[in-house]
Design goal:
- With about 400 residues, the protein is of the alpha+beta class.
- It has two domains: about 35 residues, no CATH class; about 260 residues, no CATH class.
- It has eleven helices and twelve strands.
- Strand 6 and strand 7 form a beta hairpin.
Length: about 400
């Protein structure tokens, strides 16, 4: 549980919550830049006879010049629609059982939904562990100069992130979409002297693809292990979906994707009309990204808004690092396999033991990450539960609920 008052001071002004006086900061105070209004006043003073139309242009220019301090990085882990619908199926079954007065079934389905979230959170933790280990650095010295291929500055170890995580159930358009916002504070403790410095964001962006692949592998393996979930490759693009969840069903709950796709197609037609040729993959990706941002609706009561001290309600500046389930190039997946091979811990697995004093093995070794083959093919979201064991079904212990699809007693 995150205390909002503590969270606001820490993420808004870097106040150390361990200091009861509230005077100690983690590193330097946030930078303060001129607001759009302040910049606009300067521009207007330079053009005292500006017309109303010119004043509107100056305000647009002022807003484009605004700089905001980066208080934290929003590392978002968003799962595929089929996994979201698997969770929705359990919740719908719980609601149906509650309507019928079957309290035992209510507890069973709520436990199943909680189990699905636990698998997602396991993948999320694995991604954060990887990012802390591989991207946990801060920069020291002056990095603006380079001699040959060597920079004059240096990178120093800082592998302990400060993270506040928020689980979300819906998209901006109100569709079911499970995802987790991980707010990584832009202050990390330098291991050399214990001083708090800013995080090297370049490393965070560099390793986000591999982190996505690790989160996906851990999550899917946990779902297969706990629920016997099967997987099929996506028809278009990388990644996998839960077997038995049709594309048509996912599209019914993906109004956000449909909006982005329709806008991207329109932009692609306009691009071809203007340039005389169709956009390539890179241009199409940029058009889709633009369509994504252009069509985004604001979230009502967004839980990530940080109220600053002094009564000024202003959200802290942040940069978003997306970690999408199923994404990751072949190179990134090879990185994952390399990482996992270096941190084996499966019982009876071949391989030399790490020497004394070496770092602890990664908590998700190969022995824990091998997905089982699926034996279930659920039909649609309202009926996914019929392929799961119910309390009292054959194969479950007498009088004890059994998690959906779990093999063995």
């Amino acid at each position: 549980m995150i205390d909002r008052a503590v969270f606001g001071r820490l993420y808004g002004t870097f106040i150390d919550p361990r200091d009861p006086t509230g005077q100690t900061r983690l590193g330097r105070a946030p930078q303060r830049f001129r607001s759009a209004e302040e910049i606009f006043a300067v521009l207007v003073a330079l053009e005292p006879e500006a017309t109303a139309e010119r004043l509107a242009q100056l305000m647009v220019e002022a807003k484009s010049q605004v700089r905001t301090p980066v208080q934290y990085f929003d590392v978002t882990f968003s799962v595929s629609k089929s996994i979201t619908l698997l969770h929705a199926s359990a919740m719908a079954s719980a609601a149906r059982a509650a309507t019928g007065g079957d309290l035992e079934a209510v507890g069973y389905w709520e436990q199943a939904a909680a189990g699905i979230w636990a698998c997602i959170q396991a993948g999320n933790r694995a991604a954060l562990d990887y990012l802390q280990r591989e991207a946990g650095y801060t920069r020291s010295g002056y990095h603006g100069r380079q001699v040959g291929t060597v920079r004059t500055g240096r990178w120093e170890d800082a592998h302990r992130f400060i993270v506040g995580s928020f689980a979300q159930h819906t998209s901006r358009d109100g569709d079911p979409q499970l995802h987790i916002h991980n707010l990584v504070l832009n202050r990390v403790m330098r291991e050399r002297d214990g001083q708090y410095r800013t995080l090297d964001s370049q490393a965070l962006y560099e390793y986000r693809g591999a982190a996505a692949a690790i989160a996906t592998l851990v999550m899917e393996s946990a779902l297969s292990r706990e629920f016997g979930t099967g997987w099929v490759r996506r028809a278009a693009g990388p990644g996998r979906e839960v077997a038995g969840v049709s594309r048509e069903l996912m599209d019914q709950f993906s109004s956000r994707r449909q909006t982005i796709t329709a806008l991207t197609e329109r932009l692609a037609r306009e691009f071809e009309a203007q340039h005389g040729y169709a956009p390539d993959a890179r241009a199409l990706g940029k058009l889709r990204l633009w369509a994504n941002h252009a069509s985004r609706a604001a979230k009502d009561g967004h839980p990530l808004d940080v109220a600053r001290q002094g009564g000024r309600a202003a959200a802290a500046g942040f940069r978003q690092v997306r970690i999408i389930h199923g994404r990751g190039t072949g190179v990134q997946r090879r990185i994952v396999r390399s990482v996992l091979s270096r941190h084996r811990r499966g019982a009876g697995e071949a391989g030399p033991r790490p020497p004394a004093g070496s770092p602890a093995p990664h908590p998700y070794g190969r022995g824990r990450l091998l997905p089982s083959r699926a034996k279930q093919r659920p039909a649609k979201v309202g009926q996914l539960g019929r392929h799961w064991h119910r309390p009292g079904d054959a194969g479950s212990r007498a009088g004890q609920p059994r998690l959906p699809g779990r093999v063995g007693g």
